[in-house]
Amino acid sequence: MAAAVAIDVIGVVSGVIGIFQFAQDQMPSNPANPADSSSLRIHLGGGAGTVPNAGGSLGAIKVYNEDQTIIGAGSGDGPIPMGSFQDITITQGYGPGQQPTYVQISGTDDGVCIAYLIQTWPDGTQRGWLGDMGQACGATWGYSNVIVGTDHKPACTWLDQDHSGILSGSMQIHMQDFTNLTTDYSTDPAHYCAWPAMYFDARTENTGLPDNQLWEAPVLSVTATAATTAITPTAAKRALANRRGQKKRSRKLASTIVGSHDKAHSAVQLCQSETSYGSDFVSFAEGVFCDMETKTAWPLCEKSVKDECYDWETHALVEKGGRTTKKQYGDVQKWE
């Protein structure tokens, strides 16, 4: 079996394709029985800090070969803590030793926000995927504090079967498309958003997706309702407009605030995005607070701004005339 080495994974930041390197210590452990299994590391949003409510459970995980035939399946070992990862063994009973180039992951009612995936195949080959790609392609996303390589913090992509404000219930990734193997790779983000490279759906196998077969956008039933619509940027906007039937943020999300010093974490972008989701957020670099319940951006209070602002120290909105509205947070987190 080949030794684990650093791999280059394709991601997209601010609409621009980039290459990000995973270090050897970010790889999943080798399969226990490499002749008939592979490994998949799933890292949820978090790191030195934690993405609020990003911890959760996964449903069915299935893999397919390049001929688009199912070769194996696995499942998570209970809930994955916020900001942590789980190495999952995929038993390839249908295709021992074969390359699991496609990965399907279904969510549960306990939503998760995935920052990255890394595979180790039976022969030791490794492939990766970054949560940035979900954000770029219209899936529900949030910031994470996970570091990939030296300083890149990928966005995380949300999956939730009961759609508590989250569009996607499941996703399917052609892992081969996201590992940079040559210098001749597409620099067009739209290339990576299309089937078969990546596919998101509001459904899971428990709620209408075909079982034990590759999900193909052309053959799936597409209707005007969010519950049965493949997730694309257009569909995401349509689903957002019909959110009245969806549940609001969980109590955990609503009672948590994150303040980040990372310049890449823009509270303005978070508030303006139609597909962002998560706890209230402060960008100290921008001096902006984003109320994620209403998607309203407020400047931080300072010497030159004394009203119509957010006071980080007291966690209160200071309205015109000095009237304050206290925000009740049970969990206050700071990311560097």
Main attributes of the structure:
6-stranded antiparallel sheet, 9% helix, 5-stranded antiparallel sheet, mainly beta
TL;DR?
This protein has 336 residues and is mainly beta. It has helices spanning 132-136, 189-193, 233-241, 251-254, 267-272; strands at 7-13, 16-22, 37-44, 58-64, 70-75, 85-91, 102-107, 112-120, 126-130, 141-142, 156-159, 170-174, 198-201, 256-260, 280-283, 288-291, 296-299, 309-311, 316-318, 324-326, 331-335.
Task: Write a structural description.
The chain is built from five helices and 21 strands. By secondary structure, the protein is mainly beta. The radius of gyration is 20 Å and the shape is elongated. Residues 219-246 have low confidence and may be disordered.
**Low-confidence segments:** 219-246
Strand content: 25-35%
Over the alpha carbons, how many angstroms does the gyration radius reach?
Answer: 20 Å
Would you count the extended β strands for me?
21
- Tally of helical segments: 5
Task: Give the class from helix and strand content and strand pairing.
Answer: mainly beta
What does the overall shape look like? elongated
Order of helices and strands: EEEEEEEEEHEEEHEHHEHEEEEEEE
Distance between the termini: 39 Å
Q: What fraction, in percent, of the residue positions are helical?
A: under 10%
Mean pLDDT across every amino acid position: 84
Could you give a short account of the major beta sheet?
A: 6 strands, antiparallel
Give the arrangement of secondary structure elements.
Blueprint: E1 7-13, E2 16-22, E3 37-44, E4 58-64, E5 70-75, E6 85-91, E7 102-107, E8 112-120, E9 126-130, H1 132-136, E10 141-142, E11 156-159, E12 170-174, H2 189-193, E13 198-201, H3 233-241, H4 251-254, E14 256-260, H5 267-272, E15 280-283, E16 288-291, E17 296-299, E18 309-311, E19 316-318, E20 324-326, E21 331-335
Parallel strand pairs: 14-15, 14-21
Antiparallel strand pairs: 1-2, 3-6, 3-8, 4-5, 4-7, 7-12, 8-9, 8-11, 10-11, 12-13, 15-16, 16-17, 18-19, 19-20
